[in-house]
Amino acid sequence: MTRKVADCRKYPSESHCTLTISGEEDEVLRAAAEHAVSVHEHEDTPELREQIRGLLEDEKAAA
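Above: the chain sequence. Below: its structure as tokens.
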């Protein structure tokens, strides 16, 4: 299974967040949603989770 990555550095915010989360898709989605709520003050909604899911990228293999 391909690991997924959510990287806050790719999405400008007032907090200049640099967090990167990687793991299996469901783990990353859950952690990224929790982070979006606690740090970026978003509401945890189905729409937020779908938006996050659409932003996830495949993790690049270490060289």
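The CA atoms of residues 37 and 43 lie 6 Å apart.
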